[in-house]
């Protein structure tokens, strides 16, 4: 490695400036960005399935229109992120193959089932809320295309969280049965939402290097704590109980103390042994194979247009 190039790379990172696609970068910096951005993109696309499950069964036209808009946004987020990954020299078809063959992952959270429409509200409130905590700092990531993709994603994510919370507030002002549906969904999604932030810092092999390269701006535990501190007052306002008996306000820390997630569950789900892993990949594989004719037709049309216009 040419010393001047390494020096320039390190100076740009230290000055909180951006590394752009044509800049020299260490192979390991490129590799960890491809790893994280691809996983992020896969998560957006797989994440359309749990909620998509309720599109045809939304309780009103308004709820259906909102959910349709959200699912469409997630597809767009996947597109921005695959495009950002491609600036690093990989191709989205290669990344899709790796996802389908299990060589690349997506967020554990999307391997849990959506049992009723209260789950749609809890996903918006907790899962998109956690996503906002994780994605806002990524707007200051050192890699230009990733940081810029995050700016647009974060704007749309706040709509996702607000519509979920409003849906739950409506149910909480409904019948006793509807309130029980919300509480049951919160009980099922709370701990998996905390696991979205990754393993504890002591068990996170990538965090130190990602922080040094200013890809990650906060550690997994810092963002998890920020999410808990943000969410507890919202749960109180909603009138639900978070399923953590150790949750208590810590005056001197100015934060909420909370219990330990079940890390063995996170490891199991990451390894493919969650409630819906097989189903999620099968649906993704079927969509890819059934959609091959669309890709071929678009490519044929593009070739014809090129011949016609030279
Ligand atoms: N699900 C799946 N894999 C996970 C995980 C999770 N919740 N948490 C950690 N992992 C994996 C990591 O990918 C890593 O494995 P790898 O080295 O093979 O990639 C391993 O477990 C160790 O974890 P680390 O903390 O060392 O890994 P990272 O430094 O990459 O941190 C992360 C994990 C915080 C998820 C980070 O990758 C990240 O911030 N990614 C970008 C954001 C993202 O992907 N969010 C997921 C939700 S998608 C979403 O929010 C969509 C919205 O619309 C709901």
TrEMBL record:
One of its GO terms (cellular component) is cytosol. InterPro entries: Aromatic_CoA_ox/epox (IPR052703), Ferritin-like (IPR012347), Ferritin-like_SF (IPR009078), PaaA (IPR011881), PaaA_PaaC (IPR007814). It comes from the Bacteria. It holds the Pfam family PaaA_PaaC. One of its GO terms (biological process) is phenylacetate catabolic process. One of its GO terms (molecular function) is phenylacetyl-CoA 1,2-epoxidase activity. This is 1,2-phenylacetyl-CoA epoxidase subunit A.
